[in-house]
Design brief:
The protein is an alpha/beta fold. The chain has six helices and six strands, in the order βαβαβααβαββα. Strands 1, 2, 3, 4, 5 and 6 form a six-stranded parallel β-sheet that branches. α5 (123-137) links the parallel β4 (109-116) and β5 (140-141). The termini are close together.
C-alpha cells in the first residue's frame, strides 16, 4: 500500500520557518509518511528582499496552488504579519479559486506552524486567522493539541502551542530556533501523521 503524502509548504524570510519545517518533516517521516518540502512563490522584488536581508531558498521547489490536490494533507508554515499570513501566502491561497469551486481539497488534512518576532507577537491568532482558508476549502484542521508536555511550563521562553508549532525570531532575526521548538515541531509532524493514517486506506 502506498504511503500517505504530506506537503510542508513554507514562506521563510530569514530561515527560522525553514528550520521548523525540517523538524516537522522529520516527525512526519518518523511515522512512515512521505513528506515533501515546498515554498510559495515570492512576491517581493530582489531589491526589497536584499534590504530586508532575506535568505534565499532556491533548493526548495515552488509549489503551484493546483498541486495541493496531489497531497493527502499539507502543513503550512510562515511568519506572522499583523496576526495573519504574509502577502506571499495570501497570494498563494488567492489563486485557489478553481480548487474552491470544485471543492477539490475537501476532506484533506491541514496543519499550521508560525514564527513571530516576540513572545507575544500573536502565534495563536495567526494560526486561527489562517484556518479560514481551510474552512472554505473543506480541509480538516489538525491542531498540535496538548499531547506533549513540551508546550507546557514557564521554565523558558519558547514558541508553539496547541494550535501548532512556532518559534521566536526577535525583530531582527537574531534569535535562532531552540531545541525545544524543534522538538515541538517534530511532535507536530508525528501527531499529524498519526491523525492522517487513521483514515488513510
Amino acid at each position: 500500500m502506498s504511503k500517505p503524502v504530506v506537503y510542508v509548504v513554507i514562506h521563510s524570510l530569514w530561515g527560522h520557518i525553514k528550520t521548523v519545517a525540517e523538524s516537522v518533516v522529520e516527525g512526519l517521516e518518523a511515522q512512515g509518511v512521505e513528506a515533501k518540502l515546498f515554498r510559495v512563490q515570492e512576491t517581493l522584488s530582489e531589491e526589497v528582499l536584499g534590504k530586508m536581508h532575506a535568505a534565499t531558498f532556491d533548493a526548495i521547489p515552488i509549489l503551484a496552488p493546483q498541486d495541493l490536490t496531489k497531497a493527502d494533507g499539507f502543513i503550512f508554515g510562515f511568519g506572522t504579519r499583523f496576526g495573519g499570513a504574509p502577502a506571499q501566502v495570501k497570494a498563494f491561497w488567492d489563486a485557489t479559486g478553481g480548487l474552491w469551486a470544485s471543492q477539490a481539497l475537501a476532506g484533506k488534512y491541514g496543519g499550521v506552524f508560525t514564527s513571530t518576532g516576540t513572545q507575544h507577537g500573536g502565534q495563536e491568532i495567526t494560526i486561527s486567522n489562517f484556518i479560514s482558508h481551510y474552512v472554505h476549502h473543506g480541509v480538516l484542521f489538525v491542531p498540535l493539541g496538548y499531547g506533549t508536555p513540551l508546550i507546557s511550563g514557564v521554565d523558558e521562553v519558547f514558541g508553539g502551542g496547541p494550535w501548532g508549532a512556532g518559534t521566536l525570531s526577535d525583530g531582527n532575526g537574531s534569535r535562532q530556533v531552540s531545541q525545544r521548538e524543534k522538538d515541538i515541531a517534530k511532535y507536530q509532524g508525528e501527531s499529524f501523521a498519526k491523525a492522517l493514517k487513521k483514515t488513510f486506506h
